[in-house]
């Protein structure tokens, strides 16, 4: 059985607890099967995660670098998913070079500079179970990770909207088209053919109809409205209620997507009250001061 280790340095606002070191048993065998997890703090907000891996499906030795890059992004997104906090690679000034044998090493000048309140991290179950998920859900986790890393509400929403649409495309049972019908509840008449040429008249199912299984009604209505404003170039309308409303929508979407995907890993649902305070973007203020030159009567 082929075994190798994978090491990555992560910058994230977490506090590790004793429970983090508990054994995790998974009744699944993903392609990347972890035999050991070692996570330790290097300094405040900076952690080193080392995974010992048995890659049973890899042929011809160590996997290709592109495979490891995809695996790296999946691991990082799963770590962010475990605690619902921003997680960044040490990505400022990276130097990549070969060392002995088939190994490569990345050295960085340091983590990106950002500060969030720390959140307790008690388990890495999602990291283990997430490696067996279907590729479609791995894509959702990637955009969820990007949303967590986005401090601006608009960019966070864009990533969440992509994650929602990926889930809708993969899991929705509403497909195909339907006949247009009257919007009146008393009438509800369906028009099956064009009154002029007699051809069958069908309208594709809308995103609202296909996403109803995932988002509750009040959240679905707001999501569709903001999604159309953002993706169809109507940002001027969004800005009218943007600062107060959009962060609240983002938080509810994060809870919905996290609970839906987490259920497939056997994780307990969380509420908005339990969402990490690290999701709240820090207040940034700028102070400018200057001195006017003394007036000498000339312009």
What's the gist of this structure?
The chain has eight helices and ten strands.
Considering the chains and any ligands shown, give keywords for the structure:
299 residues; alpha+beta; 2 domains; two-stranded parallel sheet; 8 helices; 34% helix
Describe the structure.
The chain has 299 residues and is an alpha+beta fold. The protein folds into two domains: 1-132, no CATH class; 135-172 and 211-269, no CATH class. The protein contains eight helices and ten strands. It has a four-stranded antiparallel β-sheet, with helices on one face. A hairpin with a 5-residue loop joins β6 (95-98) and β7. α1 packs across α3 and α4 (153-171) runs parallel beside α8. The longest helix is centred in the C-terminal third of the chain and has 22 residues, at 242-263. The protein is elongated, with a radius of gyration of 24 Å. The protein starts with a strand and ends in a 36-residue tail after the last helix. Residues 284-292 have low confidence and may be disordered.
Write the layout of secondary structure elements.
Layout: E1 3-11, E2 14-16, E3 32-43, E4 46-55, H1 65-83, E5 88-89, E6 95-98, E7 104-107, E8 119-121, H2 125-129, H3 135-149, H4 153-171, E9 177-178, E10 203-204, H5 207-210, H6 217-231, H7 235-238, H8 242-263
Helix pairs in contact: 1-3, 3-4, 4-8, 6-8
Order of helices and strands: EEEEHEEEEHHHEEHHHH
Number of H/I helices: 8
Question: Structural class of the helices, strands and pairings?
Answer: alpha+beta
Count the E strands: 10
Helix content: 25-40%
Question: Main beta sheet: strand number and arrangement?
Answer: 4 strands, antiparallel
Whole-Å distance between the termini? 82 Å
Mean pLDDT equals 78
């Amino acid at each position: 059985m082929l075994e190798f280790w994978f090491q990555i340095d992560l910058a994230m606002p977490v506090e590790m607890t004793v429970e983090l070191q508990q054994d995790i048993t998974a009744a699944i065998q993903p392609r990347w099967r972890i035999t050991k997890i070692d996570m330790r703090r290097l300094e405040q907000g900076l952690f080193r995660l080392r995974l010992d891996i048995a890659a049973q499906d890899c042929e011809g030795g160590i996997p290709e670098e592109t495979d490891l890059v995809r695996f790296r992004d999946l691991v990082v997104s799963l770590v962010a998913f475990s605690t619902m906090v921003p997680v960044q690679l040490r990505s400022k000034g990276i130097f990549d070079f070969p060392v002995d044998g088939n190994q490569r090493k990345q050295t960085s000048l340091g983590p990106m500079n950002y500060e969030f309140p720390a959140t307790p991290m008690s388990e890495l179950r999602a990291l283990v179970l997430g490696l067996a998920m279907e590729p479609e859900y791995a894509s959702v986790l990637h955009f969820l990770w990007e949303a967590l890393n986005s401090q601006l509400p608009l960019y966070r929403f864009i990533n969440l909207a992509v994650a929602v649409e990926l889930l809708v495309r993969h899991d929705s049972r509403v497909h195909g088209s339907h006949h247009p019908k009257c919007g009146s509840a008393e009438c509800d008449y369906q028009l099956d053919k064009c009154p002029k040429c007699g051809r069958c008249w069908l309208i594709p199912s809308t995103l609202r109809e296909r996403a109803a299984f995932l988002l509750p009604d009040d959240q679905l209505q707001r999501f569709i409205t903001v999604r159309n404003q953002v993706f169809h170039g109507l940002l001027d309308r969004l800005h009218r209620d943007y600062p107060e409303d959009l962060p609240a929508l983002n938080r509810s979407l994060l809870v919905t997507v996290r609970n839906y995907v987490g259920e497939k890993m056997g994780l307990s649902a969380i509420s908005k009250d339990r969402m990490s305070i690290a999701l709240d973007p820090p207040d940034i203020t700028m102070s400018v001061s200057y001195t006017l030159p003394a007036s000498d009567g000339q312009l």
